[in-house]
Amino acid sequence: MSQPWVPFDDRGLAYGDGVFETVLLRDGQPVLWQQHLERLQSGCERLKIDPPSPADLVGTWQATPAAGWEVLKIIVTRGSGGRGYATPDVAVPRLVSRRVPFQPDPSAWAQGVSVRICSLRLARQPRLAGIKHLNRLENVLARQEWQTTDYREGLLADDHGLAVEATSMNLFWEKGGRIMTPTLDQCGVEGTLRAALIDAQLVTLAQLPIDEVASVDRLWLANSVQGVWPVNALWTAQGALLRHWGVSRHDPLQAVAHPLLGYPATP
């Protein structure tokens, strides 16, 4: 059963020892729920944490019906105990959740967004790649790189110079008629909308050096809460404009992704 608080000795609080999911609710029902369950299960398995029961996870949203859009955040930690970094012999995982009202941003769907390239580089750690673990300090540091409203997001590359993701969204691009997204086997988060688009065979996996992002035909950012944002302008970390793209009303990525979320296919 979900708890409304965590004690001081919770390992998620102390060490980031846990995973989380951010789920879009439409009229009280979770969107892409199976994909969220699979990623949470994968993250728990990778960290060797016993996952919550299906009934407890369903209880985070089923007990309180609501109308409209909400965001549900689910956090699973290893619980309390252990000595320093050593895990307890018998861990009792802790489940915490909260849901809040949400409004998507149709202007970002229709007009696109301006993004910058971050100077921070993501470290490679294959054992953590893909999962949504609680240690997001790289993302926090990257988001500190800008404070103005000129940019909606920042692009992150790894320490080999390959584009990985945005600070809180997955990256997609089109070149030569193909829509692609980075292979996230070294670092980054495998988003649930990204997983659904790969399953739909709309998107293929590829690698893109961060220095070549400005050469693609189209660029998007997307996640299962915000939907798909076309990128209309790309800037360097120093504030120089690298590329401007026009935004088409008939967007091939939105046409498939948005119905999966309950958003309009054409903004």
UniProtKB/TrEMBL annotation:
Pathway(s) annotated for this protein in UniProt: Cofactor biosynthesis; tetrahydrofolate biosynthesis; 4-aminobenzoate from chorismate: step 2/2
Single GO MF annotation: 4-amino-4-deoxychorismate lyase activity
Annotated GO biological process: 4-aminobenzoate biosynthetic process; folic acid biosynthetic process
Protein name per the record: Aminodeoxychorismate lyase
Assembly, per entry: Homodimer.
One matching Pfam family: Aminotran_4
Enzyme class: lyase
Organism: Vreelandella subterranea
Gene3D superfamilies assigned to the protein according to its UniProt record, in alphabetical order: 3.30.470.10, D-amino Acid Aminotransferase, subunit A, domain 2
Family, per entry: Belongs to the class-IV pyridoxal-phosphate-dependent aminotransferase family.
